[in-house]
Specification:
201 residues; alpha+beta; Protein kinase-like fold; four-stranded mixed beta sheet; two-stranded antiparallel ribbon; 6 helices; 13% strand; globular; a-kinase_dom; kinase; EC 2.7.11.1; membrane; ATP binding
């Protein structure tokens, strides 16, 4: 069931968010850390939709903090503290899982997030498969710009690691180091909408 998987995905992402908070909170000047709220699955045998999810109601302006594609420029993601810390959370998870897993669709009110997704490489990660296309991981790698919170956590810039890998390949070519030899990313099949079953509050 879609509802059961959404529950599983959100609660898995929530565990990563707790580990992130444990690492980020003690850092001087980091401040409040985004939190993914808990989502509960309830079973209602008598109802024609037997499974529903229950979660805390978020009151206030609902904002999407994570990038969907290159065309979307979300100033609240780029300029707000919550938005920057969400991007850092994505970078932190990406680095922790060696680029195998990414928490996507970070959205919510202020620092409280819900209805998130997870993208994994095709084979999954540690027995877990996400519910988003792994093209999200490629997109994140191409579009993420580190901010001060990435620096506080000592995360490696995604740009420099790729340049290093290119330089490391022994080649006799006389090309200047910054010649554009970047491979074009072929767009993968778009992700199915996840919100066709409305969760009841």
């Amino acid at each position: 069931s879609v509802v059961i998987q959404e529950c599983y995905v959100q609660n898995t992402a929530r565990e990563y968010a707790k580990l992130y908070a444990a690492e980020a909170e003690p850092l001087e000047g980091f401040g409040e850390v985004p939190e993914i709220i808990q989502i509960f699955l309830i079973h209602r045998p008598a109802n024609n939709i037997p499974y529903a999810t229950v979660e805390e109601e978020l009151v206030g302006e609902f904002v999407k903090y994570s990038v969907k594609d290159g065309k979307e420029v979300n100033f609240l993601r780029r300029d707000s503290e919550a938005g920057q810390k969400c991007c850092t959370f994505q970078h932190w998870v990406y680095e922790k899982t060696n680029g195998n897993l990414l928490v996507t669709d970070l959205q919510g009110v202020g620092m409280k997030l819900t209805d998130v997704g997870i993208a994994t490489l095709a084979k999954g990660y540690k027995g877990f498969k996400g519910n988003c296309s792994f093209s999200f991981i490629e997109q994140f790698r191409a579009l993420h710009q580190c901010n001060e919170y990435c620096e506080m956590l000592g995360l490696k810039s995604l740009r420099t690691t790729h340049q290093k890998q290119r330089k490391a390949t022994p080649t006799k070519s006389k090309n200047p180091p910054n010649s554009s030899t970047v491979k074009k990313i072929v767009p993968k099949k778009a992700r199915e909408p996840r919100d066709f079953i409305s969760s009841e509050h």
